[in-house]
Predict the structure.
Amino acid sequence: MATMLFSSGICAQQGGHYIGGATGLENGSTAPPGIFVSEIPIVERVNALKGSDGATLAKPDINVFANMLALAVTTRKTFLGASYGASVIVPFVNTRFTANFFNFNASAESGGLSDIYFSPLTLGWEKGNANFTVNYGLYAPNGSFDPSSSLNPGLGFWEHQIQAGTTFSIGKEKLWNTSFLTTWEINHTKTELDVRPGPMVTGEYSFGRRFDKYQMNAGIAGYGYKKLSPDSGSGINPSLQGIKDRSFGIGPEWKYTNIKWHLGFDARFEQQFGVQAKTSGNITVISITYLDLLPPHKK
């Protein structure tokens, strides 16, 4: 899932495309056979810039709004015993930024099409109370990117993304559920800059309970993010060399699916904490999905 991230030469590392907290309840499962069209508004509220030791270096006022249009298909075809699917996400981003850095006032606004995400391979398995998913995707640097600007709709580099996770329904009635999803980001060098963001990993978890004849799922979701090795290249700010950023987040989530209406709703809020060498704040994710499920096989 792509977005525009704010990067400051004061303390922030090069960000990746994936947003910690982008998924939550049941994120270790693939969708059933069908076609799914989603609109996913995301609001990222940034109120602090954290140093490598976690200390607050500045208190900007940054609002990142991304509206993502997603199309996902799960087919009846199988591969390695798993259901097979594919997806594409087209993100539009708008950012407003005001701050006072060491008595220097600054403000800016930027918006436009961000980097498109395409996943040609989404696999899902189901065994008893457990579901498993593995998928591969790619971000293309098609979004507008200016190397001299800190506010860009696009990030300016190709990125490979690999995900693997599981959802487990607890008990015979399967009312309680927990899930865990890992996201691995492998990045190429940025356009017109000798800067290559280091590889990153994000682990997202959830715990919830189903209500209303299994149509509703409510609980908590959280994530932990860590850069595995420092950014590299001659374009790296010397004060940032060797630093690996991190962040965590947690908060409530509510999901509702109505098969008769062909609609699904999801709302999630996560407060960030334990942040080092990057921006800190909170994130709100809302999704509205049209479900066109394939009819079951006739026996």
